[in-house]
Amino acid sequence: MGGGIDLYTYDYLYQYKIENNVLVKRSEEELEKERCKRINISPYSNNNLLINPDFRVNQRGKTEYIGNIYGVDRWIGTQGSNITVVENGIKTECFDDTHNQGVKQFIECDMDLLVGKAFTLSLEVDTTEVPDEYVNVSSKYHWLSVNNINHVFIVKKKKSSEILSYSGTIQYLDGFYKPYLLVRLNTLTGTIIKWAKLELGSIATPFVFPDKTTELLKCKRYYQKIGVPKGSYDAIIKNITSYTTASTKQYLSFSPQY
Predict the structure, then answer these.
(1) Which of 17, 152, 205, 230 could form a disulfide with 141 if both were Cys (CB 3.0 to 4.6 A apart)?
(2) Residue 53 and residue 210: Cα distance in Å, rounded?
(3) What is the pTM of this model?
């Protein structure tokens, strides 16, 4: 596990610039852009526990996923969500009366080793398409969660690039979900999520875009599309059980389902 520079240190190191041979302080917007730029070129980065963290693997091939179903690989939509695949991530919108919906991911892990350890969840968002009436309103916010350790972020100003980050201590979920880490990203309607990162430790280290081929292999452990062999339809339809199986499950799905 590598070291890292937290976001507040980035703020301190890069809050000034030289302009006409004079040292001047960057504006808040300039500082945010500098932070986003530099956080992706630092040599220090912890492992990302999420699979398909930049949403580029999309074996199902659709551009829109509605409701509580799997969409881009490993990510499940929330009940009132409308998830659109965009060039630089996914866009979250609501089709119910809530103001924040999004996606969630279950992560397999040895929870006995992780419980009690610090975690940090970070993501980069674009909020330029969030409705104006949701900006700088205390009751309208992004809602993030790792195993029910939650944090909210109010959109004080629309930005094309903003990094959200918070830390906590890992705890167990109850019942059936006890062996999993459950990460939930419920963002204000109209938000684009560019990437997400879950790491151990209390410092947010830079996001590193993963190799897409490697992420695809990880995803195929849970889901693979397969085709019904050409010419097999007549043989299959003679057996209603086989026909039902072939027509409703044209993919390989491996346990666990989450």
Answers:
(1) 152
(2) 8
(3) 0.74
Query: Per-residue pLDDT tens for 242-254?
Result: 333 333 333 443 3
Do the beta carbons of residue 75 and residue 187 sit within 8 Å? no
Region at 55 (left for phi over 0; alpha for psi -120 to 50; beta for the rest): left
Task: Kindly give, in sequence order, each residue whose CB lies less than 8 Å from that of residue 89, ignoring residues fewer than 6 positions away.
Answer: 54, 55, 126, 192, 193, 194, 195
186 contacts: CB under 8 Å, gap ≥ 6: 78, 92, 100, 101, 102, 142, 143, 144, 145
Question: 90 pairs with which residues across the strands?
Answer: 85, 193
Q: What are phi and psi of 21, to 5 degrees?
A: 65, 20
Q: 10 Å Cβ neighbour count for 8?
A: 10
User: Residue 21 carries which side chain, given as an amino acid letter?
Assistant: N
Neighbouring CB atoms inside 10 A of 102's CB total 26
Residues 6+ apart with CB under 8 A from 37: none
CB distance 39 to 80 below 8 Å: no
**E-state strands within 189-253:** 191-200, 223-225, 251-253
Q: What is the pLDDT of residues 181-197, one digit of tens each?
A: 999 999 999 999 999 99
Average pLDDT over residues 30-50: 68
In the block, tokens 């990302």 appear at 48
